[in-house]
Write a structure and sequence with these properties.
Beta-lactamase; 2 domains; five-stranded antiparallel beta sheet; three-stranded antiparallel beta sheet; 12 strands; about 40% helix; globular; acetylation; Glutaminase; Beta-lactam/transpept-like; hydrolase
Length: about 325
């Protein structure tokens, strides 16, 4: 349900009862008389001067063609509302945010065995560092840097007969949108210019930590990164992480409560590349960014915020999206800390 021009006297979080863990049974006020749609538009307008402070990703040629002066923000709440402003229905490239979905699929398939092949520590190095992977004998520091996500892609290729189709089906199920697709131009562009990711994969293969053939693993990884999605759809897709693993609009258990906690913990420490510590310090929410210009932030027992704008800072995070989420969290008092 798309909500427009509505004022919220309360925000509805998920509160668990002993008898029915999936029902919203009471509301907790967070901030009175907040017109979320108007607030989102106000914050979006304030961020327009920031377009010039970033640069659209150009190491993937297809992404370099995206017009820079675009922005959107959307909030999906656990009670089924969606509030948005700007180009919130404009598709963009999912890129590294796809790592969240792949990780959940791999955790569901392998359980704790996954953590024998990938760690869960912040990297302290660039997200595509080869040096760190060499030092640590082919064990990626965490699953949301590139080496870790490629390892996760190997798990999916090795455990699904058609892993690309399985990933797409999973994303469509979470969004309830059957028209989600992989952008072929972006996919082919990444295949052609993915040499550094190939180096990471072959290095892990040399240490015995990649089971499938490297070209097949890379094809899956680039395909999931090339998914086209918009802010409203992405916020809705990740609601289960704000709701202890249960997707509220379908009441489906997507992952266990423990795994939802683990994913949020990893996003809190490592989801924003080399700005993860700064984002946790200033905003205080689990989050993941992608070089397509989007950032998602999980607000447990409330909902999911997605902001998008293509120009990136030197860390690979959207300048406008970071500011939007930071200001929104401040306005609504959404920090976990």
């Amino acid at each position: 349900m798309i909500a427009t021009n509505l004022k919220l006297s309360v925000i509805l979080p998920m509160v668990v009862s002993n008898n029915s863990p999936h029902l919203i049974i009471r509301a907790r006020p967070m901030k009175a008389n907040t017109d979320l749609t108007a607030l989102l538009q106000q914050l979006l307008d304030q961020c327009q001067p920031l377009y010039s402070q970033g640069k659209v990703a150009d190491y993937i040629p297809a992404l370099a063609q995206v017009a820079p002066q675009q922005a959107a923000v959307a909030i999906a709440t656990l009670d089924g509302q969606i509030y948005s402003a700007g180009a919130a229905t404009q598709p963009f490239s999912l890129q590294s945010i796809s790592k969240i979905f792949g990780l959940v699929m791999a955790m569901n398939r392998l359980g704790d065995e996954l953590w024998q092949r990938v760690n869960m520590e912040p990297s302290g190095q660039p997200f595509n560092s080869i040096v760190q992977l060499e030092w640590e004998q082919g064990i990626p520091r965490n699953p949301v840097i590139n080496a870790g996500a490629i390892l996760v892609a190997d798990v999916l290729v090795s455990h699904y007969s058609a892993s690309k189709t399985a990933f797409l089906t999973f994303l469509r199920r979470l969004t309830s949108v059957e028209t989600i697709y992989a952008d072929q131009q972006v996919y082919l562009s990444e295949l052609e210019h993915g040499n550094r990711n190939a180096a990471l994969a072959y290095l892990m293969k040399s240490f015995g930590n990649i089971e499938a053939e490297v070209p097949q693993v890379l094809e899956h990884y680039f395909h999931q990164c090339a998914m086209a999605i918009n802010c409203q759809q992405l916020s809705r897709a990740l609601l289960f992480l704000a709701n202890r693993g249960v997707q509220p609009h379908s009441n489906e258990q997507i992952c266990s409560r423990r795994d939802a906690h683990r994913v949020n913990a990893i996003l809190s420490t490592s989801g924003m590349y080399d700005q993860s510590g700064e984002f946790a310090f200033k905003v205080g929410l689990p989050a993941k960014s992608g070089v397509g210009g989007a950032i998602v932030a999980i607000v447990p027992q409330f909902g999911v915020i997605t902001a998008w704008s293509p120009p990136l800072n030197r860390f690979g995070n959207s300048v406008v999206a970071m500011q939007l989420i930071s200001q929104l969290a401040e306005e609504l008092g959404l920090s976990l800390f």
